[in-house]
Amino acid sequence: MAKVSATEKNKRRREMTARDAGKRAALKAIIKDRETPIEERFRATLKLAEMPRNGSKTRIRNRCEVTGRPRAYYRKLKMSRIALRELGSLGKVPGLLKSSW
Fold first, then answer.
1. Looking at the structure, do residues 49 and 21 belong to the same domain, yes or no?
2. Mapping DSSP to helix (H, G, I), strand (E, B) and coil, where does residue 80 land?
């Protein structure tokens, strides 16, 4: 199991990203638009830099829903390989058969 603080921090980052997504997108659109004056684009860049870093989507870490493990994460199932194997052995993942020979 991952530390509770790590999973909570990731949850806060997800919430902050969802909250600030519109504002970030608007500022990035101003920055990328070559038709706007350079001063306005520079002001938009400074505003974007002032926003909290944890509001950026790249700061979110994919974590297992069961254990909180950050590595060996299957996006489709939202869990790690270890949790998948364990739940698959118990027959709790539909359509998954653990092979043995």
1. yes
2. strand
What pTM value is reported for the model?
A: 0.77
Copy the structure tokens of residue 17.
């990203």
Q: Do the bridges between strand 73-74 and strand 79-80 make them parallel or antiparallel, or are there none, so unpaired? A: antiparallel
Q: How far apart are CA 80 and CA 54, in angstroms?
A: 24
- Residue whose structure tokens are 């043995």: 100
Q: Which amino acid is at 65?
A: E
Number of domains in the chain: 2
**Same domain, yes or no: 11 and 38:** yes
| Per-residue pLDDT tens digits for 49-88 | 999 999 999 999 999 999 999 999 999 999 999 999 999 8
Q: Are residues 57 and 68 in the same domain?
A: no
Distance CA 49, CA 90 (A): 48
Distance between CA atoms of 14 and 51, rounded to whole angstroms?
A: 15
| SS3 state at 60 | coil
Domain that holds residue 43: 1-61
